[in-house]
Design a protein that fits this description.
Layout: H1 16-30, H2 42-49, H3 53-65, E1 69-72, E2 76-79
Antiparallel strand pairs: 1-2
Length: 86
């Protein structure tokens, strides 16, 4: 999931968890994370992105609030199907 440029810029006036959520949302929007794809575990994401596990947890919560992912306890977090266009 990691590109070469850092995902988080602490000097930006944006919460770190929002930067992480925006990064993952961008991967979903670009198709790099397709509907049904499972996100890596919190620990792996934290290591890859160089942030604390609590930051990843809050970012995933943000993505759920945006309707981009769903979390199944004991199974993982998955990208949801986009709503059908009317």
């Amino acid at each position: 999931m990691s590109d070469h440029e850092p995902v988080v810029d602490p000097s930006r006036p944006v919460y770190v968890y929002v930067q992480v959520a925006d990064h993952i949302a961008g991967l979903i929007a670009s198709g790099k994370l397709a509907p049904g794809a499972r996100l890596e575990g919190e620990r792996e994401l934290a290591e890859q992105l160089g942030v604390a596990i609590g930051t990843v947890r809050r970012a995933v919560e943000e993505l759920r609030e945006r309707g981009l992912v769903t979390t199944l306890p004991g199974k993982g977090t998955y990208v949801v199907e986009p709503p059908a266009a009317e």
